């Protein structure tokens, strides 16, 4: 291990942050994971008790990068503002007033900042138009980071699936999943690829700004649920005339992320879900 490397601070070190933290640790960094219950973190990460609503711990003086990846306790505007907008503001204030001078700050955001595109392709140059109040808070948080830190990084993730994130698989197995009859593209990324993208953007020479984190293959929800039914031996889901309310009607491009040299372990939902069903990608569980 290269002991000359400094510290990485992951604020909101939940499932995604833990996977990213393990990858940083393997690369030789000291990693601090800030969360309300640090005792849940694996031994490779130094757990720090932190609540974004209370006094913040001091960042280590050798902090090379900060990853801001908290999860709001509920889907309300109040919870999102407290967690993301005011939480990030307090972290940035702490950086400005403390000895740490991290060269990289990355915000994990969401593709929920985009609106409906009627099935068209969307990339980072597409104007954000959040359709929900919580999406508007996320966009405001992104704008805060890039205003305060023009060298900041924003990673907009689509639907994350993977170990412990098996909602769709569970629905297919229980017979509650539906196959929409109308075309409706969906976008997703495996948890391990999402974590790898965080590490890659921090460690690479990626230009500051915004990146979309999705796999190579936007897919119709009907194709995904029928694939899962086949893989699990469950009955084929019934067709539904209703329109899916999740994810927006758009196809998200990962070309900018790919252009930095990032490679996906699971470039499409077939390879990713097969790994989940086989029990792979469970390193910290």
What does this 3D model show about the protein?
Helices cover 34% and strands 20% of the residues. With 285 residues, it is an alpha/beta fold. It has one domain (7-277): Rossmann fold. The strands form 5 sheets. The chain has a 7-stranded parallel β-sheet, sandwiched between helices. Helix 1 links the parallel strand 1 (7-11) and strand 2 (30-35). Helix 4 crosses helix 6 (221-232). It is globular and about 60 Å long.
Summarize the structure.
By secondary structure, this protein is an alpha/beta fold.
Topology, please?
Blueprint: E1 7-11, H1 15-26, E2 30-35, E3 46-49, E4 63-68, H2 77-97, E5 104-110, E6 121-122, H3 133-148, E7 153-157, E8 159-161, H4 167-174, E9 178-180, E10 185-186, E11 188-190, H5 191-203, E12 209-213, E13 219-220, H6 221-232, E14 238-240, E15 251-252, H7 255-259, H8 269-277
Parallel strand pairs: 1-2, 1-4, 2-3, 4-5, 5-7, 6-15, 7-12, 8-11, 9-14
Antiparallel strand pairs: 10-13
Helix pairs in contact: 1-5, 2-3, 4-6, 6-8
Order of helices and strands: EHEEEHEEHEEHEEEHEEHEEHH
> How are the strands of the biggest sheet laid out side by side?
3-2-1-4-5-7-12
Shape: globular
- Can you identify the CATH class? Alpha Beta
CATH architecture tag: 3-Layer(aba) Sandwich
Counting H and I runs of at least 4 residues, what is the number of helices? Answer: 8
* Class by alpha and beta content: alpha/beta
Classify the helix fraction into a percent range: 25-40%
The strand count comes to 15
Range of strand content? 15-25%
Q: What value does the average pLDDT take?
A: 92
Task: Using the coordinates shown, work out and report the CATH topology.
Answer: Rossmann fold
